[in-house]
Amino acid sequence: MDGGHDNKAIGTKKPEVHLKEIETAVKKAIAKVGI
């Protein structure tokens, strides 16, 4: 996963929002891979 460019933005968000975004990104990645 490429989250390097998001580090500054993540620091300003609530942890639960950050976790939701990670979960969404993971689901998208899984769907793209087709597992």
Structure description:
- This protein has 35 residues and is an all-alpha fold.
- The protein has 2 helices and no strands.
- The two termini are 16 Å apart.
- The mean pLDDT is 73.
Question: Key terms for this structure?
Answer:
35 residues; mainly alpha; 2 helices
Order of helices and strands: HH
Alpha-beta classification: mainly alpha
Query: Total number of β-strand segments?
Result: 0
Largest sheet: none
Q: What would you report as the Rg, rounded to the nearest angstrom?
A: 11 Å
Mean of all residue-level pLDDT scores? 73
Gross geometry: rod-shaped
How many helices does DSSP assign? 2
Helix content: 55-70%
Spatial separation of the terminal alpha carbons: 16 Å
Estimate what percentage of residues fall within beta strands: under 5%
Low-confidence stretches: none
Please specify the SSE layout and strand pairing.
Elements: H1 7-11, H2 15-33
Précis, in short:
The protein is an all-alpha fold and about 35 residues long. Helices cover about 70% and strands about 0% of the residues.
